[in-house]
Amino acid sequence: MVQKFGTQKQKDYWLPRFAAGELRGCLGLTEPDAGTDLQGIRTTARRVGDKYVVNGSKTWITNVVNGHCLALMVKTDPSANPRYKGMSMLITPKIDPETRQPLAGLTTGRKLPKLGYKGIDTGEISFADYECDAELCLIGGEEGQGFFMATGGLEIGRINVAARGVGLARRGLREAVRYSQERKTMGKPICEHQAIQTKLGEMATKVRASELLVEDAARLYDAGARVDMEAGMAKFFASETALEVATEAMRIHGAYGYSKEYVVERLYRDAPLMCIGEGSNEMQRIIIAKPLIARNKI
User: Fold this and answer.
1) Whose CA is closest to 87, among 156, 123, 13, 37?
2) pTM score
3) Contact 79, 70 (CB under 8 A)
4) Burial of 200 (0-12, 13-18, 19+ CB in 10 A)
5) Strands (DSSP E) along 152-236, which ranges?
6) What's the CATH number for 8-143?
């Protein structure tokens, strides 16, 4: 959750608690009027003495209902121009790490009902004159760095989503191959029908291509390279592949694919989120194109 710390005090205070599992974190970026446009956030943090006073709300935050602590994107200078220079990241616990008591000024809202991806909660949270220790809670120890922390984190986040897309697509392909050998029509398994073979062939090819794109992005990230283009490619292609493979797996299963008796029904519900989370695939196309042009200027 936390990319870097500005002081030894922050390291000593937060990291042991996260490492021990005492605190579960989440990332507080999205707001009702600010999703892909991070610079449009309205949540503010005003410095008052040795405290930050936070006001605003976040939505579609993964793990916020059961989690204990947020890396919260705020505006510490709402008048900054360009806007990203006025954005900072705070560690905002929901409970006091020492006493384990709820902190004032913070309200966890409703758990959002979702089509799929029900294994982890997604919800809302609001801050009303919530106070946190400035020295302990300002990530990096310097105001104005929040936008770069968030966008830097989104690179690995997109690789993560791409990897999840690969896993989902692999399962869909495996289920489709297995069922196509069990199900028979016209006296033979449906895998022997060309219509099914063309589906399976295309699914397998795209799954393998997704694997390679994720591996490429992950290797470059581990090497310390900038991977906005590679992470965008992996996220875009792997998530679209996951959705396509889940859909085709359901169609290969026929009516059973629409039944909760088979896992492909869940894959079909879970897959669309991959195309939306960590930046929509509409935005990924632009994210890919910009560095592509910059790297190949004539």
Assistant:
1) 37
2) 0.88
3) no
4) middle
5) 184-185, 188-189
6) 2.40.110.10
Q: Give the chain's radius of gyration (CA, Å).
A: 22
3-state helix, strand, coil in the chain (%, to 5): 50, 20, 30
| Token pair 């937060």: residue | 14
Domain residue spans in the chain? 8-143, 149-295
Express each pLDDT in 107-119 by its tens digit. 999 999 999 999 9
Sign of CA dihedral 268, 271, 275, 277: positive
Write the DSSP string, 2-39: ----SSHHHHHHHHHHHHTTS--EEEE--BTTBSS-GG
282 belongs to the catalytic site: no
CB-CB contact of 41 with 75 (8 Å): yes
Determine which one of 22, 244, 278, 282 is catalytic.
Answer: 278
Instruction: Please state which CATH number belongs to domain 149-295.
Output: 1.20.140.10
Helix (H) or strand (E) holding 240: helix 228-253
Cβ atoms 86, 80 nearer than 8 A = yes
Closest Cα to residue 84, out of 33, 149, 35? 149
59: CB partners within 8 A, 6+ apart: 30, 31, 32, 109, 112, 123, 124
State pLDDT tens for residues 231-282: 999 999 999 999 999 999 999 999 999 999 999 999 999 999 999 988 899 9
State how far the Cα of 245 lies from the Cα of 247, in Å rounded to an integer.
Answer: 5
Query: What are the residues whose beta carbons fall under 8 Å from the beta carbon of 278, sequence distance 6 or more?
Result: 154, 157, 158, 160, 161, 235
Do residues 53 and 22 lie in contact, with contact meaning Cβ atoms separated by under 8 Å? no
Task: Calculate the alpha carbon distances from 137 to 1, 7, 51, 92, 282 in Å.
Answer: 13, 10, 9, 7, 34
- Strand stretches in the chain, DSSP E: 25-28, 44-48, 51-62, 69-75, 87-93, 106-111, 122-133, 184-185, 188-189
